[in-house]
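Ticket opened by: R.M.
Priority: normal
Category: complex prediction / small molecule

The reporter submitted a protein together with pyridoxal-5'-phosphate and asked that the result be attached to this ticket for the collaborator who will pick it up next week. Submitted input follows.
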Amino acid sequence: MILVKAMNNRQLFLQHVAQTSEAPIGIEMVEAAGVTLTDVHGKTYTDFIAGFSVCNIGHSHPEVVKAVQEQAAKYMHLIVYGEFIESPQVQYASLLAGHLPNNLDCVYFTSSGAEATEGALKLAKRVTGKTKIIACNKAYHGSTQGALSVMGDEYWRNAFRPLLPEVYHFNYNDHALIDAIDGTVACVIVEPVQAESGVTVGKKEWLAAIRKKCDEHCVLLIFDEIQSGFGRTGSLFAFEQMGVVPDVLLVGKALGGGMPLGAFISSHKLMSTLTVAPVLGHITTFGGHPVSCAAGKKAFEILTEQKWIDTVSAKSELLKTLLKHPAIVQMQGIGLWFSLQFTSDALAQKVAHTCVQNGLITDWFLFAPDRIRVAPPLIITEAEIRAACAIITTSIDQVLLEHPELA
Ligand code: PLP
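Result attached by the on-call engineer:
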């Protein structure tokens, strides 16, 4: 107890909060509003990654905060998932279904994206009676064991084997994946825009060919839109721009408006396989928590009714104009979601670090450490974009001045 008092919050964080990185950003924030985070010393930062694509309508939107407070005052946890009729869940599921194609009318709420992935993989087994899974290299679908099995990199998978058997990985946008789909496959899990390879946009013809082959062989097509969802790409979901509708849609991150919430969404008919033989085919205590659903629904209403998605295209063009620097060798992405590629991992890491020091939050990508991410809240203003891009370009100059060997 005496020891606890003597340590500051940073020391306590490193000692008592389990760490999974040797270099966490490690800044203590005390407030977040809109696109701005404020640390314990009063320094402000522009959140240029929206809390990893969560805060699409900005941090702590007053109406979302109000929805949380009101729902918390009515009731919080009541019972396990799917027993009582909880209005926030019912209302949010219905709202989502109204914005989705007819075959995506039934929502299973979870507490996280990884749980949505787990649920979808189980659903595919149950619906098809098959177990083989096709996934993509450089894909990230979550960190639990099923989700890890479909993660697209052996470095992260290997230490945790044995994982799910019969999972086959193929390169993104590569025809070999299509050739591998046959009658023995249960599902294909793919992101219409692959996030962690550095925002790689799926080719329309490739996704359409996957859809066709899945239909021919009774294979479920699962789209992971956990990161690409809720307006980030310039449409509510990326699949709308691809012209390909999945059998199962995975959502998370921005779904909860800043509260923990994920979901796998499919048809009522397919979902009904989880209710019999065995009954309770997928169970969760906290999935679809009423406070998370109330927050998510309010955030969704703000996003759609205030037409923030309509602003994405112009802001995207502005970013492309402003983020020009000889050290940025490639800018790849869609909507308000880009990766900036540098000549080396070391340069990208130094730039990311310097941006944070200079008041702008960015980070690298899991499978592209030579890139930094740009994914601001969709409510960001033109002036805020200009100021943020200036921080990025001056941070690059600063790094190159201090470390000429990285040029
Ligand atoms: N799928 C994608 C594309 C993601 O980016 C993530 C998280 O970053 C997940 C799944 C897992 O979501 P969660 O961290 O909520 O489990």
